Amino acid sequence: MSIRKTLVVAGHGMVGHRFVQAAIERGLTERYDIVIAGEESRAAYDRVALTSFFEVGADALSFLPEGVYEDPRVKLLVDTEVTSVDRDAQRVTFSNGETQAYDVLVLATGAAPFVPPVPGKDLENVFVYRTIDDLEAIREASKTAKAGVVIGGGLLGLEAANALHQLEVETHVVELAPRLMAVQIDDAGGATLKRHIEKLGLKVHTGVMTELIDGDDDGKVSALKFKDNDEPLEVEIVVFSAGIRPRDILARESGLDVAERGGILVDPQMRTSDSNIFAIGECAAPEGRMYGLVAPGYQMAEVAVDALLEGPGEFTGADMSTKLKLLGVDVASFGDAFATTEGSLELVFADAVGGVYKKLVVNEDATQLLGGILVGDASAYGILRPMVSSGMALPENPEELILPASRGTAQIGMPDEAVVCSCNNITKGTICGIIDEQGCVDLPCAKACTKAGTVCGSCVPIVKNLLTERMEAAGKTVNKAICEHFSYSRQELFDLVQVHQYKRFDDIIEAHGTGRGCDICKPAIASILASQFNGHVLDKQTTASLQDTNDAYLANLQKNGTYSVVPRIPGGEITPEGLIVIGEVARDFGLYTKITGGQRIDMFGARMEQLPAIWSRLVDAGFESGHAYGKSLRTVKSCVGKTWCRFGVQDSTQLAIDLELRYRGLRSPHKLKGAVSGCARECAEARGKDFGVIATDKGWNLYVAGNGGMVPAHAQLLAGDLDTETLYRYLDRFLMYYIRTADRLQRTSTWLAALDGGMDRLKAIVIDDELGLGEELEAEMSRHVDTYFDEWKATLEDPEKLARFVSFINAPETPDPNISFDTERGQIVPVNHDEPVVLGSTIPVGAPQ
Ligand SMILES: Cc1cc2nc3c(=O)[nH]c(=O)nc-3n(C[C@H](O)[C@H](O)[C@H](O)COP(=O)(O)OP(=O)(O)OC[C@H]3O[C@@H](n4cnc5c(N)ncnc54)[C@H](O)[C@@H]3O)c2cc1C
Ligand code: SF4
Ligand code: SF4
């Protein structure tokens, strides 16, 4: 029996947070409890957007405004520094004196600003620029200050100058090098940037060296003195931004190998010289090199999670391109910006009046772009940088790429491999795939689904273009590769599985894919296998390891780590005895109950190890799984119909029950809902469902492809006045054709919208059987109906499947102590983890009695 392990993360900054997110998303918490200790007083936030703190406040920057992760197996301790690591005992000590044992330790301690040993550096009102606390302190000091200076004219120095400027303090920038942003841009670019900044009223001093900081009698900053210059700057605030140093002290003190110039040495899988300890982000130094940008840190976080999952991922270096808006000025630098490649040529466009400087570095025969610098107008960055990373051929007149309002840069097609979002390392292909699959209709939706554009935001314009392109092309030239592991659409995979009769994911990926699969293709293939073979979703040999969180426990995971229990109530009809059983179960297990919009009763708050005992009672009383957790048929809602209603013309309740029983358990690309109304008054809201039936004097009208949700769609009439038998036939064909041909997570409405020929085409296929598929589709549905079984009943009969329903594998009887409840309106509701623990039910947990 495997035992749960403990993983400790030291540092809750951008990369530490990304690591934990990836760990949750990719199932690492199935094996590890994660404890994160962050030294700052708040959970991780967007440090890259730090300067906007004055405008938006801390909550808007926070990655975790509630301070807790959705997964209860992850515990975050803020205001808690890891002060030492005892590698022999595998234990860390926190600043509050407590200790924590670990099986795996991940160091994500970031970097600290470097403060050179300038006399006066310890005076009051000398700051660094790294955390929200730093900004709060600077804001406080600015209330009484007239002038301030930033020492360092690099990327971060200009950010800090921006902050001072926002606080309405006269702002100076002091830089030792002869130009600003010396690492990223050349002399001409630096000069253009300087002009821009000075126009805003800031004072830039390049090529000068700070000698000392003077203080007044109160020990506060009063002036800055330069070497070889008699004229001191009278300032009351000094902000150091002279570079950063990796925070590798824990590694040094515990004897781990560190790089010569600082940073914890790691192998390509982010393991330090101690195989139980990983280092990621700015504290790490793969091959001795530290990366001071967030994108490489995110890559490292993903690689470390991969390594812990025994995956093949490796960190092989990162693109250090940058695009920023500094004090309102666009600045970008990418690839070989300084033309260090032998034979490389430079193409320059400079408009001193307009304050625009653009430089392209191309190879000797001008066929490939090697790098570039953009100041004042970086709109072409999104197109140019991917051209460097993909090595795509330059157009015949490359200068057109940088000419003002360039004639057609937007028209240059990027290859799918081109990395569009460098912060998250997402290619154009991946973005398009996700946009298509999710049916995103606007930018926020596309950003949320693809993650592109959610860090520095520089790729947002391209994501928007891609979205527009995909929407315009919907149904025509869409790239439907389901994910990076398969170059096939869901429909093509469906056909492959059918033709080859595959039963295992491993066989499919071996024959038709690459890698090990991901959380996109695994559940999609699980769904395809379930649609075609109707096996048990928890079958070890076939689909158990492929399921997402809900399917994996045959229940919906709720916000405090508990699960919901939803028995099927076909057509919403239930006997008083049934109601009593549900009431008794809910009472005995202390569950919250609610009647859903789909005419069922939700029971919330069940701990994972309680699920079998709860279901055992329900199954004994004749209930079965309502599949509330699956991408499958949920409910067929009904009104009371002609049996009770004065207006009813048909027995809508009977039909709804029959349809729900016919299609129960049917796995599909998206969840499915149906409804039947007994007359045109439409009390069951059938036209807001994937299939809706409305009774007429002569029979049934069948509507398809409607839905509620974020983008509601009205179902459309497929056929009218049908007899019951024909209704079944058309519905069987419609549903099976959808299941066969839709994309992953594509609703019936978006599927129909994308179907070439739309409703007319669907009628031709379903009613006129133009493709000659009718019988085949009906036979597939019959096979589904004949092979249906209740997943929960089958689970209760199988000890191997039951074994997964434990909070702690090594202590199956122990409930998760992090789960606690409060009471509201007489029922339980979730509370935060730091509130008192109430364990609820006294019913014994474990396998059914
Ligand atoms: C103003 C500013 C602007 C930036 N702009 C950009 C940009 O435009 N693009 C870009 O790519 N990058 C930018 N960066 C850099 C980017 O923020 C970093 O690359 C990124 O935050 C690194 O993430 P990290 O998790 O490694 O370190 P951090 O985010 O610094 O997180 C490390 C965390 O660990 C904590 N910690 C340290 N030691 C311990 C310990 N012993 N115990 C517990 N906790 C500890 C620290 O307090 C910190 O909260 C910017 C940075 C700043 C400051
Ligand atoms: S609406 Fe759907 S597609 Fe859009 S962000 Fe939400 S989940 Fe993604
Ligand atoms: S839809 Fe018609 S039959 Fe059904 S409850 Fe409403 S009025 Fe009555």
UniProtKB/TrEMBL annotation:
Record-level Gene Ontology MF annotations: 2 iron, 2 sulfur cluster binding; 4 iron, 4 sulfur cluster binding; flavin adenine dinucleotide binding; heme binding; metal ion binding; NADP binding; nitrite reductase activity; sulfite reductase (ferredoxin) activity
Species annotation: Nocardioides cavernaquae
Domain BFD-like [2Fe-2S]-binding, residue spans: 419-469
Cofactors demanded by this protein: [2Fe-2S] cluster; FAD; siroheme; [4Fe-4S] cluster
Domain called NADH-rubredoxin oxidoreductase C-terminal: residue spans: 321-389
Cofactor note: Binds 1 siroheme per subunit.
PROSITE patterns: NIR_SIR (PS00365)
Keywords: 2Fe-2S, 4Fe-4S, FAD, Flavoprotein, Heme, Iron, Iron-sulfur, Metal-binding, Nitrate assimilation, Oxidoreductase, Thioether bond
Protein name (database record): assimilatory sulfite reductase (ferredoxin)
